[in-house]
Amino acid sequence: MEINKPFYPYQLSEDALRFDFHSVSNTKRIHKVVQYSPIPDNDSIFQLSFGDLKDDDTLDFLTVSDNQDMKKILTTVIQTIFKFFELKPDKTIVFIGSTETRTRLYRIIINKLIDEMELYFNIIGIKEDGNQESFIKNQQYLAFLIFLKDEK
């Protein structure tokens, strides 16, 4: 399971919940982290968080690094989703952008990759009123749920 597009190699933590990689351009190298954290009181749902690792080892979810490699970074994040489900197939991922602009960006990425992703995943959009529906292209969502399709 993977998307056949360029992505960065990543390091996987021992608990398989953190993926570290570097965004690389001609001018800088930025340490990125994708973290999967269990939702309190529901250990079957994990929140996907993504950001830059700061010098104090905290994650910065708001910085726009503008390293001219957004597609490769987002493809890397998607590859971590594939790996997460390979290791934890019975779990669900929820994610929301740290800003409205980032949530919109995630929606655009899903729009572009929906045909490939839907081969493996159910993708649910959560609307502002809390209602959920199967992801519809160009529909506005507050957050997204992803889980593996049942193998039949």
Brief summary:
The chain has 152 residues and is of the alpha+beta class. The chain is 24% helix and 35% strand.
> How large is the share of residues in beta strands?
25-35%
CATH class descriptor name of the domain at 11-111: Alpha Beta
Order of helices and strands: EEEEEHEHEEE
Helix content: 10-25%
Kindly report the CATH topology of the domain at 11-111: TATA-Binding Protein
Q: What's the number of helices?
A: 2
Q: How many E-type strands? A: 9
C-alpha Rg (nearest Å): 15 Å
CATH architecture assignment name of the domain at 11-111: 2-Layer Sandwich
Structural class: alpha+beta
Low-confidence stretches: none
Mean pLDDT: 90
Judging from the principal axes of the Cα atoms, what is the shape? globular
Main beta-sheet strand count, sense and barrel state: 9 strands, mixed
| N→C terminal distance | 16 Å
Features:
single chain; 152 residues; alpha+beta; TATA-Binding Protein; 9-stranded mixed beta sheet; 2 helices; DUF6934
Structure commentary:
This protein has 152 residues and is an alpha+beta fold. It has a domain at 11-111: TATA-Binding Protein. It is built from 2 helices and 9 strands; from the N terminus they run βββββαβαβββ. Strands 1, 2, 3, 4, 5, 6, 7, 8 and 9 form a 9-stranded mixed sheet that branches. The two termini are 16 Å apart. It holds the Pfam family DUF6934.
